[in-house]
Amino acid sequence: MNSIGYDLNGHDMKFDQWRSQARLLLQQGVAPAHAQWSQAASLFSEVDSISKPLSNPVVTSDFIELAQLVSCVRDPDRWSLLYRLIYRMNHENRNLLKVSVDEDVRKADVWAKSVSRDIHKMHAFVRFKKTEVNGRETYVAWHKPEHQCLELAASFFVRRFGDKPWSIFTPNLSAHWNLKELSFSKGIPQNKFEHSDSFDEVWTTYYKSIFNPARLKIKMMKTEMPVKYWSSMPESAVIQELIRETPKILQNMAETPRFLAKVPETSDWRVLRDSAKSCKACPLAGHATQTVFGEGDLNAELMIVGEQPADEDDKSGRTFVGPVGKVLSEALENAGIGRDSIYITNAVKHFKWEPQGKERLNKKANGREMQACKPWLEAEIARVKPKVILALGATAGTALYGRLVNIQKERGKIHTESPFAPAILISWHPAAVLRSASIEEKSQRLAELSEDIKLALNKVPGPKNFSNHT
Ligand code: SF4
After folding, report:
1. Domains of the chain with bracketed CATH
2. Which of 5, 208, 218, 274 gives 41 a disulfide partner, CB atoms 3.0 to 4.6 angstroms apart?
3. How confident is the model at residue 37, as a pLDDT?
4. Ligand 1 center from residue 348 Cα (angstroms)
């Protein structure tokens, strides 16, 4: 029997090590049943099963992608499953991974999905604390993933927090970023991770500030933020308290008069626009460069409502410029309508952002900010009197539908019972088109946005007279 394995001083074999050994076995024609992958077995003890040797085994990119995920699973059978798959791809069917009913393929898919989910949870639930190492400010976090996926997950943190030195510790492995390179070392148990400082307080305060009791769904919260991660998440300490306090908070919210923009009673659009420039009804005015009011044809039959100004809009004072504006222009062009023929605005008039190095990252406006800004949107709608309103994105949808909306489920449907216009509908925000996970998804979302604009135009009664200058 040919037996292969490692004794890596207690550490599991790494994917690259498995890969080079698997290549060696394939080249020698060793069948899966005769290759044992264990931690302490001897390497190449004896060979009694040789099939056709392969001088140059084929290893496809989709197999590598799948195998990297599967290699993170804490199951000793993962290495033999991967070898079986690659052996069969080379000897039976090169397209084996497409055979979803195959037992090996199915098992690998289930494992890969589980690891992908675990990586996603790590990205969402790692909480850094600020500390000092050798006099230098450093950020540290401890997290317990279900699988051994820190190496695959770490590049996300380099992209997201690359301007600060950090370490992420897990029970098996730790990752360290020193502003130049990523390195890994042994893991540590949670009880040895004893750094504690005011960073917990920051997370707790932040969580309290974004907690929306009106949207509290405990079961869903536990699914999204599994209880097993709570021990390393400082905000978990306040979750129970907030849940207990929810009825009181809701009562207070109902009784407290909302902050509302003070809108002059006029239908003069210039007066409205100029008055909005000095609005300070919510804190967003203090962080943005200027108000970005709507613009376009003041007698337009179609009004498009986005979420809030983007970075470029904030700097220029004009709505839907920059990359997001380009996507909207492309969709309008696909639908055969010029930008001059419609009125375009946002549900919130000031840019909300958070710093990320030198960048200003767009941050979603919360319910109170949307509510505060709604009178401006209502005044624009009352002035333009559109026949159809197309909401782009969930924030605009929520402002116009008065409830949470699901774009995937609700796009393409016309609502005729809105107080704002005879017909309203919702579609992808151009920023969601840009954020698509793949080229295919991007072109699909752009096509759907274009279709929804066409659908909105078809709902405009009477003869159409749209220019086509975007
Ligand atoms: S976001 Fe709206 S309500 Fe808030 S300050 Fe700006 S204009 Fe006023």
Report:
1. 2-120 (no CATH), 126-192 (no CATH), 199-255 (no CATH), 269-458 (3.40.470.10)
2. 5
3. 72
4. 7
Name the phi and psi angles at 186, rounded to 5.
-60, 155
Q: pLDDT per residue over 19-35, tens digit each? A: 888 888 888 888 888 87
Are 25 and 18 a contacting pair, CB within 8 Å?
no
Going by CA atoms, what residue is nearest to atom 3 of ligand 1?
Answer: 373
DSSP labels, 153-175? HHHHHHHHHTTS-EEEE-SSEEE
Indicate the residue type of 272.
L
| pTM: predicted TM-score of the whole model, two decimal places | 0.49
DSSP state of 459: T
The token pair at 235 is 């905000």
Which residues are paired to 174 by β-bridges? Answer: 169, 185
Tell which one of 279, 287, 352, 395 to mutate to probe ligand 1, the residue whose CB is within 8 A of the most ligand atoms. 279
168 lines ligand 1 (CB under 6 A): no
Regarding the beta carbon of 282 and ligand 1, being less than 6 Å apart is answered yes
Give CA separation, 319 vs 299, 310, 343, in Å. 18, 8, 11
274 C-alpha to ligand 1 centroid (Å) = 13
Q: What is the pLDDT, as a whole number, of residue 163?
A: 87
Backbone region of residue 254 per phi and psi (left: phi > 0; alpha: psi in -120 to 50; beta: other values): alpha
Specify the residue for token string 């929520």. 398
Residue nearest to atom 2 of ligand 1 (CA): 373
- Cα separation of 439 and 343, whole Å? 30
Burial class of 189 by CB neighbour count within 10 A (0 to 12, 13 to 18, 19+): exposed
Q: What separation in Å is there between the alpha carbon of 84 and the centre of ligand 1?
A: 61
CA of 280 to the centre of ligand 1 (A): 6
Ligand 1 centroid–CA 303 distance in Å is: 20
